[in-house]
Design brief:
By secondary structure, this protein is mostly helical. 78% of the residues lie in helices and 0% in strands. α4 (61-74) runs parallel beside α14, α6 runs antiparallel to α12 (178-199) and α7 (114-124) packs parallel to α20.
C-alpha cells in the first residue's frame, strides 16, 4: 500500500483516537490527499465531493424519516404501543422486561432509531421496573439490547443508509429486517424469563388482557401500527419510492398526532423541527465527509485493490463471511454504524456478490453486525447513553449486557449462514 493510501487513513485513525468528531476525522484524512499528496488535483474537487452527495434526491428519505420519528415522540404513539405491549406480555414472569423488548419491536416500525428507543424506554419504562424491584443493571441491559432491534426493523435508518450507499433495493432490505428482529425478540424474551424466574420478578399484571381489552388496545394502537406495513406494501406495490415513503410517513405521523390522538400542540412544533434538523445534520454531515474520502479511495483504486487482494487469498464464501464479521465487530466497537456503512459497504459489497452472497443478506448482516457495536464496550453509544441516563457505572452495565451480546451474536450467525430464512420474506414479496 503506497503513501497516498495509508497516510490519509492514518490521519483518520489518529484524529479519532483524540476524540475528534468522526465527520471531522474523515475530512481530516481526505484533505491532505488533495493538498499534499496530489497537488495536481484541484482542492475544489474535495469541496465538490462533499456537496455533491447532497444533490442526490434519494437522500431526502433521511430527513423525512428523522422528522417522522421526531413527530412520533410527541404524537402519543409510544404510550399506546406501551399499553398494547403490556396487555400482550405483561402477565408473564418478568413482565416489564418482556414489555421492554416487545415495545422495541413495535417502535422499530415507528422510530427506526436505537438511540431514540433507548432514551424513551430509559425515561418511561425503566423507572417502573426499578419500583417493582428489578436490578438496575439488568433493567439497563434489557433497554440497551432491545433498542438494537429497532434499527433492523423497517424503517430502520441503518437499512436506508446502507441501501443508498451500495445501490441495493430499500424495499427488499426493509422486508429482510423483520425475521432477524423477531428472532432477537424471541431469544431475548427467553433469557429474560429465565433470569426473572431465578430472581422472582413478577409480571406487571395478574393475567393477560381480556379479548375485549386487547381489542381496545389494538384499536388505540391501530393507527401507529399501520406505519411499517403501509411503508412495506407501498414500496412493494410501486405506489411510492423510499424517499416518498419518508415524506408520507412524516405527514401521516403529523395527522395522527393532531387529528387522531390530538396530543401534538403548537408548542411542540419548534421542538420537533429542532430535533429533525439536528438529527438530519448528524447523519448528513457524516455522509458528506465520507463523500470526499470515497473519492480519494476510488481515485486510488482502493476498492479494486481490496477486492483483488481478498480474492487472491482464495477465500471461500464462508471464510469471507467470517472475516467480514470479525472486522465489522471490531470496527463497530470504535465507530458509529453510519460512517462504516458508507465507507466499507461499497468496498465489500462487490466482493460479496462475486463470491455468490446475496446482497440483501449481506446488507442485513452488515447493518446488524455494526448495531452490536452500539452496546459493546469500550465505546458503545447506546451503552454510554443509557448508563448516563440512569446514573450507573459503565463497567457494571457492560457486564450485564454480555448475555445479550451473546444472543445478538447467535442471531448474527443465523443471518450469515441461513440465507433462505432471511430472504424468505423479500423473495415472497418481490420474487426470487
Amino acid at each position: 500500500m503506497n503513501i497516498n493510501i495509508w497516510l490519509p487513513l492514518l490521519c483518520i485513525v489518529a484524529l479519532a483516537m483524540f476524540n475528534v468528531p468522526i465527520w471531522l476525522a474523515l475530512l481530516g484524512g481526505a484533505l491532505p490527499y488533495f493538498l499534499i499528496l496530489q497537488p495536481t488535483l484541484p482542492v475544489q474537487i474535495a469541496v465538490q465531493r462533499v456537496v455533491a452527495v447532497t444533490e442526490t434526491s434519494s437522500y431526502l428519505a433521511i430527513p423525512f424519516f428523522i422528522t417522522a420519528g421526531a413527530i412520533m415522540n410527541y404524537a402519543g404513539i409510544s404510550s399506546r404501543l406501551l399499553d398494547l405491549a403490556d396487555g400482550l406480555v405483561g402477565h408473564l414472569t418478568g413482565g416489564l422486561g418482556h414489555v421492554n423488548i416487545l415495545l422495541s419491536v413495535l417502535m422499530g416500525g415507528v422510530s427506526g432509531s436505537a438511540a431514540a428507543d433507548a432514551s424513551m424506554e430509559a425515561k418511561i419504562l425503566v423507572p417502573e421496573m426499578l419500583k417493582r424491584g428489578y436490578d438496575e443493571e439488568f433493567s439497563a441491559a434489557i433497554t440497551i439490547a432491545s433498542s438494537l432491534i429497532t434499527p433492523i426493523i423497517p424503517p430502520g435508518m441503518g437499512l436506508i443508509v446502507f441501501s443508498f450507499a451500495t445501490q441495493i433495493s430499500v424495499g427488499r432490505m426493509f422486508a429482510a429486517g423483520y425475521v432477524p428482529g423477531l428472532l432477537c425478540m424471541v431469544f431475548m424474551m427467553i433469557y429474560v424469563y429465565i433470569v426473572s424466574k431465578k430472581h422472582g420478578y413478577k409480571g406487571s399484571r395478574d393475567k393477560m388482557a381480556s379479548p375485549r381489552e386487547l381489542l381496545h388496545l389494538l384499536r388505540q394502537a391501530f393507527w401507529a401500527m399501520l406505519i411499517p406495513f403501509g411503508i412495506l406494501l407501498g414500496l412493494r406495490g410501486g405506489m411510492f419510492t423510499a424517499t416518498e415513503a419518508g415524506a408520507i410517513c412524516a405527514w401521516y405521523s403529523l395527522f395522527i398526532g393532531v387529528v387522531i390522538y390530538k396530543e401534538i400542540k403548537w408548542s411542540h412544533i419548534w421542538t420537533i423541527l429542532k430535533e429533525s434538523v439536528l438529527g438530519t445534520a448528524t447523519v448528513m454531515i457524516l455522509i458528506c465527509a465520507a463523500g470526499a474520502l470515497s473519492y480519494f479511495m476510488t481515485y486510488e483504486r482502493v476498492p479494486q485493490a481490496l477486492a483483488e487482494t481478498m480474492l487472491s487469498m482464495n477465500l471461500t464464501k464462508v471464510s469471507f463471511i467470517l472475516m467480514t464479521n470479525v472486522i465489522l465487530l471490531i470496527i463497530g466497537m470504535f465507530m458509529e454504524g453510519g460512517p462504516a456503512q458508507i465507507i466499507l459497504g461499497p468496498l465489500l459489497m462487490p466482493i460479496a456478490i462475486q463470491l455468490g452472497i446475496d446482497p440483501i443478506q449481506f446488507g442485513i448482516m452488515f447493518v446488524f453486525n455494526l448495531g452490536i457495536g452500539n452496546m459493546s464496550p469500550p465505546f458503545g453509544i447506546v451503552l454510554y447513553q443509557v448508563s448516563g441516563l440512569m446514573g450507573l457505572k459503565f463497567t457494571k452495565v457492560a457486564k450485564a449486557c454480555m448475555p445479550f451480546i451473546a444472543i445478538m451474536l447467535l442471531v448474527l450467525a443465523i443471518i450469515a449462514f441461513c440465507p433462505k430464512l432471511i430472504l424468505f420474506l423479500p423473495n415472497l414479496l418481490y420474487g426470487a
